[in-house]
Amino acid sequence: MRRSEDIANRPVVKVENLGIAYETSAGDVLAVRDVSFEIFRGEALGIVGESGCGKSTVAFGMVNYLGRNGKIAHGSISFQGQSLVGRSPEELRRLRGDQIAMVYQDPMTSLNPVLRIGKQMAEVLMTHRGMAKEEARERCVTMLRKVNMPDPELVLQKYPHQISGGQQQRVVIAMAMLNNPALLVMDEPTTALDVTVEATVLDLVDDLRREFDTAIMFISHNLGVIARVCDRVAVMYAGEVVEIASVHELFANPRHPYTQGLIRCVPRLGRSKASSVLYPIPGRVPSPDNQPAGCTFEPRCDYAHESCRAKRIPLREFQPNHRVRCLFAEEIDASQWTPSEALIPLAQASPDSEPILEVDSLKTYYRQASSSALSLIGLAKPRYLKAVDDVSFSLPKGITLGVVGESGCGKSTLIKTIIGLEELSGGKIEFMGVDLGGKVNKRDMATIRELQMVFQNPNATMNPSYPIGRQLERPLRRFKIVPPSEIRAEVVRLLRAVKLDEHYYDRLPNQLSGGEKQRVGIARAFAGRPDLVLCDEPVSALDVSVQAAVLNLLAEIQQQQNTTLLMIAHDLSVVRFFSDMIAVMYLGQIVEIGPAEAIYAPPYHPYTESLLAAVPIPDPTVEQAHVRLSGNVPSPLDPPSGCRFHTRCPRRHLLPDDGKLCTTTVPPWQEAGDGHRIFCHIPLDQLRAFEPAVKMSQE
Amino acid sequence: MLVKDYMLQHPIMIEPHKRLADARALLVENEIYYLPVVGDGKRFLGMITPPRLAIPPERMASLDVWEISNYLANLTVEKVMLKARDLPTIGPHATLEEASQLMIKTKVGGLAVLEGPVVLGLITDNHLLVELSNLLGAFEPGWRVTVRIKGKRGDLLRLIRAVTDRDWTIMALGNVRTPKKPDDWDVVLKVVGCTREELVDAIAQLDGQVLRDIRETASYAYVKS
């Protein structure tokens, strides 16, 4: 037991009744109302909520980055005992440099693309501390080492685009920490990163907080990330904090219906669609200019009562250190909740049926242009980027195959090759007995109809000037699904199937929310009643509550039409929930494939183990193995010899000679039973003996 | 034990152009005694402590009430602060002993911790007292014993073994030359895992070692299972 001085228990930041307004032609609109919280030194406060809840606005408001029409309408922000409201822009600029630092989602927005990293990092110290160039450079190297950057001297020589996304984010964090800030505001700092990189960045945030005693305001939509790094959590909804408590208390005993809803709609690792149901929160976040007079969550709340509509609800103390903005917090028990609509777990598909898709030694190579003199005269040996290299699997009808792996592992290229957007370089794809090897424009209409795709970003796949109805009519006409006279009725049926009503027929895409657009995308993919639908990250751009609804919908339609799905997702909990089979890809190859439940327990491939150890789980009581991958995915232009994972494998040392075999010989496929296959040299018995990467709490 | 690990990081600071009234509010509201004054880039310029807020009555004597208001409004931090050049400071890699030595020598109760000209933190006599308490395990439950030993080679080891060989745990240990008997040492141990009688008995078996004091701290009473 250690005791510290009392001063350590004073908040670095104290926000009281903060209101932030934007001036519009219709008058001031309050985007954030009555927000109060404090952050203590060395503490990380998580702020979580759906898009549009005002999380980032609070962060921007704290340093007055609100833009020309934004202003602090009421309340106070006290930083280190002094008010931040009403300070001159010059004072705030100095404070931002000296004592407050910010890290945003996209590291490239914080880095200057035309300056070498060394120069822009050193500039922070030279400007704010008047440090000499050489000393500043040395300090930058030290700080880059602290953020676990490999070869920091070399990184200083590089331009931002020459390093990976994870490394860019580390540079931004290192830059933020150079001035030893008292407060670090992190706005979705890991959202754009792969799960393995995310895990190392989150470890880093935790270490830095301890070492530098920095107060951290951590904004994220991901409950798993919040559970991993934060001490306390504030849940925001429609511009208000609706619940604030310690992270353990909030996850164990959520008291606001919105918090409970958020926790219910996230798939837990280890749960499948056959064993559990995701419950989406109905409705959507009200816009700031159209908020209910009473409780802002009342229109979406299962427990709404007349008194909730009467007046605004204050944030009140439910227990010491647990505040909630709900009149019925004492009565609402998450474990007693019953869904308003009956959602029943779906039947697990049986993989015994006939294969619909057979992929054999599939290769997709991209020829790389070279600027050498030999290549100019055509004598150079061509170089190929092996995006997909020797991938084989068989997909039974009605099954969902989830494909997981880091960015650049070839999962998108794999499905683009199957659908025909990329040309096959070798191997064979057989779909319902038809060879898909030829060019896509040579495929017959029936094959095209049978094979459809749902894209990640529904915005990018819809014509903004065509109404929804017209966009859904197109596949119906083209594939001649129904007679022309019945097209409208069929579009309406499709809209209803994706839980949208007839009114959407004449709406334009910009009149729809992200989740609604994705429903239209799903309706369009299923319009031709395809046998195989390829989904490329179908829910990753959506909020968690919408994600739950879209996943339920996909599963329901899949079951109705007995469609086979091949789904890519970076979220391992989503993939586990949704898939019957899972394939793990690394550097263009499948390293493990098998039934979903088998992939998530030993024996597994060391790469799968690292992915599972890294996945953020929205439950602070879950214990995860600390297995972290070092380095980046090697270039597919020149993949490592032997096992491609050997350069990063944390388990290689289990083999004799520190895994020399892995560096020289391609591993064998080992059968672990039930169609579960692992591409690794380590004997199955040893793989079985691994401690589970995730130890779930007893329920 | 280095200063950087035990100092207060990110102390509350003030800029030199701020009004003295603001400095006073910070000291009072946050119940702090030392307020480093920093310029651009957290450069150390001076320190405000409560005695600096005292304005000599003779300075006010000739002023009427309106002039006093005006005088106070124009009184900025830089006009009254102790200047950096007159203040002792310490680096983050100094030991806690060096920090306390410096405080004793210069008769100050708090030091700004500087890296070059930049303030990294603050270390005060209060921090040192807290760490002295931590060092002696003041907040650990257990038996606090003081044993006087001769300063002979192996004496301390015998005492430690008397505890650890019985599978009891030493939570904290400190030794100091006995006041007025510089050849002897007083060793303070915080022990858990035994009853009071067992501990007394174990120490009694050590030749030349005298149990000076034993007491229970932080509600510790070991019950044998």
Automatic annotation (TrEMBL), chain A:
Its main location: membrane. SMART domains: AAA (SM00382). It is found in: Cell membrane. Keywords: ATP-binding, Cell membrane, Membrane, Nucleotide-binding, Transport. Residues 13-263, 357-612 form the ABC transporter domain. One of its GO terms (biological process) is peptide transport. PANTHER family: DIPEPTIDE TRANSPORT ATP-BINDING PROTEIN DPPD, OLIGOPEPTIDE TRANSPORT ATP-BINDING PROTEIN APPD. InterPro entries: AAA+_ATPase (IPR003593), ABC_Ni/Peptide_Import (IPR050388), ABC_transporter-like_ATP-bd (IPR003439), ABC_transporter-like_CS (IPR017871), Oligopep_ABC_C (IPR013563), P-loop_NTPase (IPR027417). Belongs to the ABC transporter superfamily. It holds the Pfam family oligo_HPY. This is Glutathione ABC transporter ATP-binding protein. SUPFAM superfamilies: P-loop containing nucleoside triphosphate hydrolases. GO terms for molecular function: ATP binding; ATP hydrolysis activity. It comes from the Bacteria. GO terms for cellular component: plasma membrane. It is a peripheral membrane protein. The keyword Zinc-finger does not apply.
UniProtKB/TrEMBL annotation, chain B:
Keywords: CBS domain. Gene3D superfamilies: CBS-domain (3.10.580.10). Pfam families: CBS. InterPro entries: CBS_dom, CBS_dom_sf, Diverse_CBS-Domain. It comes from the Bacteria. Residues 7-65, 81-139 form the CBS domain. SMART domains: CBS. The keyword Nucleotide-binding does not apply. This is CBS domain-containing protein.
